[in-house]
Amino acid sequence: MSAPNKSYDPVEVEALKPEAIERMRSDALAAVAAAGDLEALTHVKTAHTGGGSPLALANREIGALPPQAKAEAGKRVGQARGAVNQALAARQAELEAERDARVLVEEAVDVTLPYDRRTAGARHPLTTLSERIEDIFTAMGYEVAEGPEVEAEWFNFDALNFPPDHPARETQDTFFVEGAGGSGESGVVLRTHTSPVQIRALLERELPVYVIAPGRVYRSDELDATHTPVFAQVELLAVDEGLTMADLKGTLDHMVVSLFGEGMTTRLRPNHFPFTEPSAEMDMLCYVCRGASVGNPDRPCRTCSSEGWIELGGCGVVNPRVLTACGVDPEKYSGFAFGFGIERMLMFRHNVEDMRDIVEGDVRFTLPFGMEI
Amino acid sequence: MRVPLSWLREYVDLPAGVTGRDVQAKLISAGLEVETVEQLGAGLKGPLVVGRVLTIEELEGFKKPIRFCTVDVADANRTGEPQEIVCGARNFAVGDLVVVILPGGVLPGDFQIAARKTYGHTSHGMICSARELGMGDDHDGIIVLPPGSEPGTDAIELLELVDEVLDIAVTPDRGYCLSLRGVAREAAIAYGVPLRDPALLDVPAHNGDGYPVRIAAPDGCDRFTARTVTGLDPEAASPIWLQRRLQKVGMRPISLTVDVTNYVMFELGQPLHAYDRTRIDGPIGVRRAQPGEKLTTLDGAERVLDAEDLVITDDSGPIGLAGVMGGAHTEIADGGSTDVVIEAAHFAPIPIARTSRRHKLGSEASRRFERGTDPLTTSAAAQRTVDLLVGLAGGTAEPGVTEIVSPAGPRTIAMPADHPDRVAGTEYGRETVVRRLQEIGCDVLGSDELTVTVPSWRPDLAYPNDLAEEVIRLEGYENLPSTLPQPPAGRGLTESQLLRRRVGRALAGAGYVEAPSYPFVGAEVFDQLGLDADDERRRTVRLANPLDGTEPALRTTLIPGLLGTLRRNSGRGAHDLALFETGLVFLPAAERVAPPRLPVDRRPTDEEIAALQAALPDQPRRVGAVLAGARELPGWWGAGHTASWADAIEAARTVAREAGVELTVRAGRYAPFHPGRCAVLLAGEQVVGHAGELHPRVTKAFGVPGRTSAMEIDLDLVEQAGGERASGPRVSTFPVATQDVALIVDADVPAAEVEGALRAGAGELLESVRLFDIFTGPQIGEGRKSLAYALRFRAPDRTLTAEEASAARDAAVASAATRTKATLRGA
Ligand SMILES: [Zn+2]
């Protein structure tokens, strides 16, 4: 509280007149409203709220007023300054929002641009299809067994009950490994099927044995649209007490349902393989027409040639002589086995028409199969 | 085995209206692989008749010889007048019986016959060739029929032109189905009708007056029937029905005697041989050949015999390869022989199979003996042959009969009556089991325990499971239930199997495409790879019978296969390629040992298994990769990145990392890599592979793009080196202290050494080191480079002070200075 001022300056007092303050306030608000961008607003702020601004000067003048005038002038100036600051803040927020929006618009990109910077990779469908089959059986408790690709004849033939000189050996189109001095009598072959893994599994594992054995096998066929000298097979072997041919059928049915969906089934036809007795050829229902094309010329099926069934491979009850060769008591144990070619499965499961596409390694063939099949 | 339905019906009363397709389905279900049903004479329509050629006029002035004939077709043309026919064939004469199709007839292939003008005459029909009639014969001339038919006779019926022929792929266990008798038996069972067994003949017993036979190899020949027929008419030709049946089963008619022996073989499954008696010198013998003995077989080839070969002999030496092929000398003469000795023997399968394979000589006879013939059929087959020869060629059967038989009891199998049930997993019951076994020709005795005497034509039936199969197949495989066994809990994939999957996913995730290749290579591949003459990789496992003679060996490295695939892709227009393969390579053992021949009647001992294993090459699993073109493409985002040696090494690191192994990389020199851009890859101190840019000569030799990079790593070794479970690190939440250092070293100091020195010196506070820049230039000095590293320090239990971080950095730099002579840039 200052002492009464008796020598006040009438001119200065003029500046604190209500009309003058009102003008300062309206000038300031007009300037704020007129500021078109944040930079202009900064100038406005300095001009109307800075130390040299009319309202700041007016505020300083208040002290010179007589006590009775001070309160009212102070109130008036304070209200004006408050209003200006409020307008400034509002305008600031408004301009910042405008700027932010503009920046985001400016930063917009064409999200449809292609981005093939890194080319994709893929696993071969023979690998992934083998794995898928493995997974079906490992989920049931089977394990995955393996064996070498260059194999002793004893594993590939003898122990599988292909007697030496038996015509069945002739049907295998075997690649023989050269023996000493270039002879073909080395006793070693490129395995002609995955069945020698049956023998290895029985020799190496504790009973009961439930294994699935995928792998590469070899037959001396020239490469053409349906043959390849190097191909992939999957073998299954189950040896336990009390296993039957019906168990074989059930296992096959389970597999085709897992690979092709509900309603799929298999069919067995008698055949002969030395290592199974009884032996069968296994067919699966054509998953495309499900048999509807049979005897129905209006609905021909390319997948099964309107036969309704697709030949998968061979199977049967493990020949007790195979068990004997592996030291398994055939009086106590029995088993079943099957084997089929993955290429064929790939061909009809994925509409592949030419074997050469599978074996040639063209990336355009493999890429669509991705990581899993 | 081709089976004409008309012939089959002679032994089985198939239901009326049954077609070849029906029989096919029934036999397939019974286990015979009937591959096709050929429709003979499909579309053939008469009038097709026998005609006798009356006149032949040779027409002149045409490009080829043409005949204008008149042919007597009796009333078949409704006029009885001679039929005028123009014919281009010349293999007939006036008086011959031919087959004529008259206007209105249709030949197979929808060939409509009408009277037509040709060569200046009107031809009223056509004289037919075998091919035109769909008889499948291979010669072009027209058919001249043997005498005996009347002109005008319907030739469709006479020649049995309309028929169905089943073609059966007989599996090795069903040798008996290489005969009409065997297939008829299966058909009879399938249709539930009786079989008229053509082998059920009355046969005379051995009487000592027959042609003398001495068997010196009873292990190879346990039965030998010899019969003699004399006074055969050498002019006698095989009747049409016999010729037609032979044609339908795929045999070419030759002469009556040969045709009859073939006919009986197809009928009964017993191969026979007929000798011209005038050409045999002394008793017939059966023995092993003496090594080096020679025999010229019927096919004209002179064969040097092996001591294992079973031969038929006379006093002059071998006159036939037993069960495989007769000799040329005792062959039935072209014009036919008047006196013949008929051999019907039972030879053991294995010697026949071996001889057939040794001499690369297969025959209808050897096919049957290899699979096992019916030993009890020799006498019946001989009798049937004698009967036919007597009936068709006017011969006389000599009363002398030679029957040499090694005594052998019937073969029996003991089997619990419920064994088929237990094999099948269903219940047939004893009654069904016994009935089915009887149907296939077994004698069955006993109630719970059956004693089954198997028929002589089924040598494949030896064990209870063989009998179970018979019951199950006849009851129908399609009637088996479908049950799912319950395996014990499994352990899932092995670590090694999981690793392989991870490696595949990691490489595919990194942009590589899996491309398995064939493992066959030729020696030139190793030259193309630039391998030294004594490089281990040139030692290969070789095939005795490669598909392609230029690729007789198995791969010892994955790189050639991958380069071949790269080349193929690149030739098809792909330029940015990254391929990988996981597979075996084949490394021969230093010393090759033959595997022992192990028995199969017991488990081999561990030593025996080890001996088998030792005979096999080492077959490690490798992962290989090749890259060419862009690893990263240029585009709107900026520059791309060309695939390089660094990517190849990174691919190897990717593989090793999946096994939990951090590879050590050293510079090396190793074919096929660029000598200055080759990395030796180590797990610990073990070399596990190589990576880098390929040598320019190698890329050129393989025809792949220059600067193609590659890597190959031994997955088995990497797996052995890894396998340690990752242990969870304690994560410090205190702040990191970052220190950058630039070190100047000689240009040839490997970056890996500098980093190793920094790590060694920095101590426990070091969290990571990263090389973020390499700089060379005048400021650094000739032959020098500056390596800029970011070092990050952190303590597990406190915030590091600036002094602590600096001290750790100084220690790291000091270590680098000591080990690599590094100096701190700007110091
Ligand atoms: Zn279909």
UniProtKB/TrEMBL annotation, chain A:
<dbReference type="GO" id="GO:0006432">
    <property type="term" value="P:phenylalanyl-tRNA aminoacylation"/>
</dbReference>
<comment type="subunit">
    <text>Tetramer of two alpha and two beta subunits.</text>
</comment>
<dbReference type="GO" id="GO:0005524">
    <property type="term" value="F:ATP binding"/>
</dbReference>
<dbReference type="InterPro" id="IPR022911">
    <property type="entry name" value="Phe_tRNA_ligase_alpha1_bac"/>
</dbReference>
<feature type="domain" description="Aminoacyl-transfer RNA synthetases class-II family profile">
    <location>
        <begin position="127"/>
        <end position="368"/>
    </location>
</feature>
<protein>
    <recommendedName>
        <fullName>Phenylalanine--tRNA ligase alpha subunit</fullName>
        <ecNumber>6.1.1.20</ecNumber>
    </recommendedName>
</protein>
<keyword id="KW-0460">Magnesium</keyword>
<dbReference type="InterPro" id="IPR045864">
    <property type="entry name" value="aa-tRNA-synth_II/BPL/LPL"/>
</dbReference>
<dbReference type="GO" id="GO:0005737">
    <property type="term" value="C:cytoplasm"/>
</dbReference>
<dbReference type="Pfam" id="PF02912">
    <property type="entry name" value="Phe_tRNA-synt_N"/>
</dbReference>
<feature type="binding site">
    <location>
        <position position="277"/>
    </location>
    <ligand>
        <name>Mg(2+)</name>
    </ligand>
</feature>
<dbReference type="GO" id="GO:0004826">
    <property type="term" value="F:phenylalanine-tRNA ligase activity"/>
</dbReference>
<dbReference type="InterPro" id="IPR006195">
    <property type="entry name" value="aa-tRNA-synth_II"/>
</dbReference>
<keyword id="KW-0963">Cytoplasm</keyword>
<keyword id="KW-0030">Aminoacyl-tRNA synthetase</keyword>
<dbReference type="GO" id="GO:0000287">
    <property type="term" value="F:magnesium ion binding"/>
</dbReference>
<dbReference type="InterPro" id="IPR002319">
    <property type="entry name" value="Phenylalanyl-tRNA_Synthase"/>
</dbReference>
<dbReference type="InterPro" id="IPR004529">
    <property type="entry name" value="Phe-tRNA-synth_IIc_asu"/>
</dbReference>
<keyword id="KW-0436">Ligase</keyword>
<dbReference type="InterPro" id="IPR004188">
    <property type="entry name" value="Phe-tRNA_ligase_II_N"/>
</dbReference>
<dbReference type="GO" id="GO:0000049">
    <property type="term" value="F:tRNA binding"/>
</dbReference>
<keyword id="KW-0547">Nucleotide-binding</keyword>
UniProtKB/TrEMBL annotation, chain B:
<dbReference type="InterPro" id="IPR033714">
    <property type="entry name" value="tRNA_bind_bactPheRS"/>
</dbReference>
<keyword id="KW-0648">Protein biosynthesis</keyword>
<keyword id="KW-0547">Nucleotide-binding</keyword>
<feature type="binding site">
    <location>
        <position position="470"/>
    </location>
    <ligand>
        <name>Mg(2+)</name>
    </ligand>
</feature>
<dbReference type="GO" id="GO:0000049">
    <property type="term" value="F:tRNA binding"/>
</dbReference>
<dbReference type="InterPro" id="IPR041616">
    <property type="entry name" value="PheRS_beta_core"/>
</dbReference>
<dbReference type="Pfam" id="PF01588">
    <property type="entry name" value="tRNA_bind"/>
</dbReference>
<dbReference type="Pfam" id="PF03147">
    <property type="entry name" value="FDX-ACB"/>
</dbReference>
<dbReference type="InterPro" id="IPR045864">
    <property type="entry name" value="aa-tRNA-synth_II/BPL/LPL"/>
</dbReference>
<dbReference type="InterPro" id="IPR005146">
    <property type="entry name" value="B3/B4_tRNA-bd"/>
</dbReference>
<dbReference type="GO" id="GO:0009328">
    <property type="term" value="C:phenylalanine-tRNA ligase complex"/>
</dbReference>
<keyword id="KW-0460">Magnesium</keyword>
<comment type="subunit">
    <text>Tetramer of two alpha and two beta subunits.</text>
</comment>
<dbReference type="Pfam" id="PF03484">
    <property type="entry name" value="B5"/>
</dbReference>
<keyword id="KW-0694">RNA-binding</keyword>
<dbReference type="GO" id="GO:0006432">
    <property type="term" value="P:phenylalanyl-tRNA aminoacylation"/>
</dbReference>
<protein>
    <recommendedName>
        <fullName>Phenylalanine--tRNA ligase beta subunit</fullName>
        <ecNumber>6.1.1.20</ecNumber>
    </recommendedName>
</protein>
<dbReference type="InterPro" id="IPR002547">
    <property type="entry name" value="tRNA-bd_dom"/>
</dbReference>
<dbReference type="InterPro" id="IPR020825">
    <property type="entry name" value="Phe-tRNA_synthase-like_B3/B4"/>
</dbReference>
<dbReference type="Pfam" id="PF17759">
    <property type="entry name" value="tRNA_synthFbeta"/>
</dbReference>
<feature type="domain" description="TRNA-binding">
    <location>
        <begin position="42"/>
        <end position="156"/>
    </location>
</feature>
<dbReference type="GO" id="GO:0000287">
    <property type="term" value="F:magnesium ion binding"/>
</dbReference>
